[in-house]
Write a structure and sequence with these properties.
Structural class: alpha+beta
Oligomer: single chain
Distance between the termini: 21 Å
Protein name: V-type proton ATPase subunit a
Helix content: 55-70%
Membrane topology: Multi-pass membrane protein
InterPro entries: V-ATPase_116kDa_su, V-type_ATPase_116kDa_su_euka
GO cellular component, one term: vacuolar proton-transporting V-type ATPase, V0 domain
Family: Belongs to the V-ATPase 116 kDa subunit family.
Length: 819
């Protein structure tokens, strides 16, 4: 578990998980609720579910959980309403007043009913208000149309009468024919429908009307300048005011159905201009009254929500707390006859006194006449794993837990990961300029961690913030590695003094190792600046990084094997000590440990020996003379001894362990070793095998094949894992070369033009390339490769990672879990 330490806890021990114990607690039923509450405040007891065979609805406190769920629903409703109204809940007060759950349930019900009623009334009023606004628009726009049409018709009528021309038809927008004018008894009564239709549907609306009435209609549309709020959907919609003239009830029926299908809101309208003005005045008055009423309702609703917001966090915390308590009570075994509940769970040994104190306080505060009973149970069940961590170590522990949670009391790689992970990252990322950039970014998160921890961040930002201390260590180690590499954005500096080398003569502008001579003492720290650009068969710096990668890899793999010894010793598994740890250590160091020794000797002596030739012919021709490749006296004899040890270590790993396991199995069945067996990992494995298989014969072939697989995996893995560490060299080379390309081909190239605009553009490109490629992509790449080296090459030597986390019942964790 990656959680903060407790106030009464002993100092953190990350190497081994906390000693755990299975405890049983018998609590009187009248103090059960308060006991669970106090244990939740303590947060050091992981309850076991003693009712796993029952469904959630069959458990004792199902109704209480249902009530809490309903209250949680009401609180979510309040939160949604506050969010819509732009009201934020107040922070939970430190001086909280006690609230009874029953009283809170009644209060929440009343507030919900009141809020729903206010919202319903507000929605009705808002819909009426929006309808009146649309009605006013129809009265204004349609009134203008009717007035213009009547004026035009009157003018045309006067002109026709003056000319006494009756042989043509009168072109009137009111569709009046000549006959109807001449004979009022034949006048056709036209009806009309007015309203608003969405602007995006207006063309289709017109086409459908024309087809449905076979052209026996007249449509007039006018666009509304500003979008209007639709009364039905409540959304802003661009609309047109329309008037449709028709003749006959059948056409009217069709038009009404089309309006309904297109979502056109219809409103009544009169041709009388006087009545139109009167209706506009009435509608304007109603709009003003409704606006005032709506504002008062909104103020009332906001006051309700503000009152809720003052106590929302306290109510929400109480409901979540009570729900978690009843969930836990449902995991306990209820003994109705004895009026008590029985709980079982895992607790750290150091928390025994704290748990007992919580039980005593619960008994006293609940006025119970009977105290709780606390006792430790003995079991062969594997306990959960609990590491006490803080905000610095928790992220490193999460890196290990992502691979697998350590089994109980297994050696924890997280201790070494704190140093080795950022160090291996820095070997690949080494540049003290880039390291400073990483450090500055993570310092921002660290200095503002209190504020940022209470905010909701994006996924990537949240991930970066959670690993801020890992990134800080990565930045610090990158600065250290960059100083050793002498690289600042790929540029070497003479930070610790002048270079020890100089040109042999003024003509050696592009100096190589042949053209350089040593003129002063060795550069005091890191790589000499003159080594950049030096040439031999391989660039010296790249050769240095390659050999250093092998040294680091062999050292870390040896650490993994040593940790396997400590695991075996801790669990008293002597077979693993003598037939796994010892031969593995011999095999690895007979080959790759010897290679590491040759690298160091060659560096110290300055020899020109070919190490590839030495290692290859150590196997092909072990008895041949080394000649010029000899680095020290007795090297040939040492190679023969190491080769013999490497060859003998393979059957040493393969054969003895299965044979000894079979012997132990036979002794158990013959009853010869019952008095000798101790609580060891071997005896536990044999007991589990005995209990599960009864008196079946020992499957030697299965055990042997299993051991064979492990032997082959280690032998091949020793070679492949050592080669895998060369990624340290490869990524370091790639990072350095990319940085050099951006510096020389972008920044220096722009500088060479002697143009301020080109220089600014080049600098911007350089910054974006450095941030995007080197500080983001390369950081992620080096991080993933360092992760792989820890998970595969390092941890597979000793780490099983088949345990499970300690997950105590704790109210402190309620804020991390969403309903």
């Amino acid at each position: 578990m990656a959680g903060g330490g407790h106030g009464c806890c002993p100092p953190m021990d990350l190497m081994r998980s906390e000693p755990m114990q299975l405890v049983q607690i018998i609590v009187p039923i009248e103090s059960a609720h308060l006991t669970v509450s106090y244990l939740g405040d303590l947060g050091l007891l992981q309850f076991k579910d003693l009712n796993a065979d029952k469904s959630p609805f069959q458990r004792t406190y199902a109704n209480q959980i249902k009530r809490c769920g309903e209250m949680a629903r009401k609180l979510r409703f309040f939160r949604e309403q506050m969010t819509k109204a732009g009201i934020s809940p107040s922070a939970m007060s430190l001086t909280q007043t006690h609230i009874d759950l029953d009283d809170l349930e009644i209060k929440l019900g009343e507030l919900e009913a009141e809020l729903i009623e206010v919202n319903t009334n507000s929605e009705k009023l808002q819909r009426t208000y929006n309808e009146l606004l649309e009605y006013k628009l129809v009265l204004q726009k349609a009134g203008e149309f009717f007035y213009a049409a009547q004026s035009s018709a009157t003018a045309q009528q006067r002109e026709i009468e003056a000319q006494q021309v009756f042989d043509g038809s009168l072109d009137s927008p009111l569709l009046l024919e000549q006959e109807s004018l001449a004979d009022p008894s034949k006048q056709v009564k036209l009806g009309f429908v007015s309203g608003l239709v969405p602007k995006e549907k207006s063309m289709a609306f017109e086409r459908i009307l024309f087809r449905a009435t076979r052209g026996n209609m007249y449509l007039k549309q006018v666009a509304v300048e500003d979008p209007v709020t639709d009364p039905v959907s409540g959304e802003k919609v661009a609309k047109n005011v329309f008037v449709v003239f028709y003749s006959g009830e059948r056409a009217k029926t069709k038009i009404l159905k089309i309006c309904e299908a297109f979502g056109a809101n219809r409103y009544p309208f009169t041709e009388d201009v006087g009545k139109q003005m009167q209706m506009i005045d009435e509608v304007s008055g109603k709009i003003s009254e409704l606006k005032t009423t709506i504002d008062v309702g909104l103020i009332h609703r906001d006051n309700i929500l503000k009152n809720i917001g003052h106590q929302f966090e306290q109510w929400n915390h109480l409901v979540r707390r009570e729900k978690s308590i009843y969930h836990t009570l449902n995991m306990l075994s209820l003994d109705v006859t004895k009026k008590c509940v029985v709980a079982e769970g895992w607790s750290p040994v150091f928390a025994t006194s704290q748990v007992q104190d919580a039980l005593k306080r619960a008994t006293y505060d609940s006025n119970s006449q009977v105290g709780s009973i606390f006792q430790v149970l003995y079991t062969k069940e594997s306990p959960p794993t609990y590491f006490q961590t803080n905000k610095f170590t928790s992220a490193f522990q999460e890196i290990v837990d992502a691979y697998g949670v350590a089994k109980y009391q297994e050696a924890n790689p997280g201790v070494y990961t704190i140093i080795t992970f950022p160090f291996l990252f820095a070997v690949m990322f080494g540049d003290w300029g880039h390291g400073i950039c990483l450090l500055l970014v993570t310092m921002y998160f660290i200095f503002r961690e209190k504020k940022l921890s209470s905010q909701k961040l994006g996924d990537i930002t949240e991930m970066t913030f959670g690993g801020r201390y890992v990134i800080m260590m990565m930045g610090l180690f990158s600065i250290y590695a960059g100083l050793i590499y002498n690289e600042f954005f790929s540029v070497p500096f003479e930070l610790f003094g002048k270079s020890a080398y100089a040109c042999r003569d003024p003509s050696c502008s592009n100096a190589t190792t042949v053209g350089l001579i040593k003129v002063r003492s060795t550069y005091p720290f890191g790589v000499d600046p003159k080594w950049y650009g030096s040439r031999s068969e391989l660039p010296f710096l790249n050769s240095l990084k390659m050999k250093m990668s092998i040294l680091l890899g062999v050292a870390q793999m040896n650490l993994g094997i040593v940790l396997s010894y400590f695991n075996a010793k801790f669990f008293k598994n002597n077979l693993n000590i003598w037939y796994q740890f010892v031969p593995q250590l011999i095999f690895l160091n007979s080959l790759f440990g010897y290679l590491s020794l040759l690298i160091i000797v060659k560096w110290c002596t300055g020899s020109k020996a070919d190490l590839y030739h030495v290692m290859i012919y150590m196997f092909l021709s072990p008895t041949d003379d080394l000649g010029e490749n000899q680095l020290f006296p007795g090297q040939k004899t040492l190679q023969l001894v190491l080769l013999f040890l490497a060859l003998i270590s393979v059957p040493w790993m393969l054969f003895p362990k299965p044979i000894l396991l079979k012997k132990q199995h036979q002794e158990r069945h013959q009853g010869q070793s019952y008095t000798l067996l101790q609580s060891t990992e071997e005896s536990l494995e044999l007991e589990q095998d005995h209990s599960s298989h009864g008196h079946e014969e020992f499957e030697f072939s299965e055990v042997f094949v299993h051991q064979l697989i492990h032997t082959i995996e280690f032998v091949l893995g020793a070679v492949s894992n050592t080669a895998s560490y060369l990624r340290l060299w490869a990524l370091s080379l790639a990072h350095s070369e990319l940085s050099t390309v951006f510096y020389e081909k972008v920044l220096l190239l722009a500088w060479g033009f002697n143009n301020i605009i080109i220089l600014i553009v080049g600098f911007i490109v350089f910054v974006f390339a450095t941030v995007g490629v080197l500080l983001v992509m390369e950081t992620l790449s080096a991080f993933l490769h360092a992760l792989r080296l820890h998970w595969v090459e390092f941890q597979n030597k000793f780490y099983e990672g088949d345990g499970y986390k300690f997950s105590p019942f704790s109210f402190a964790l309620l804020g991390e879990v969403e309903d």
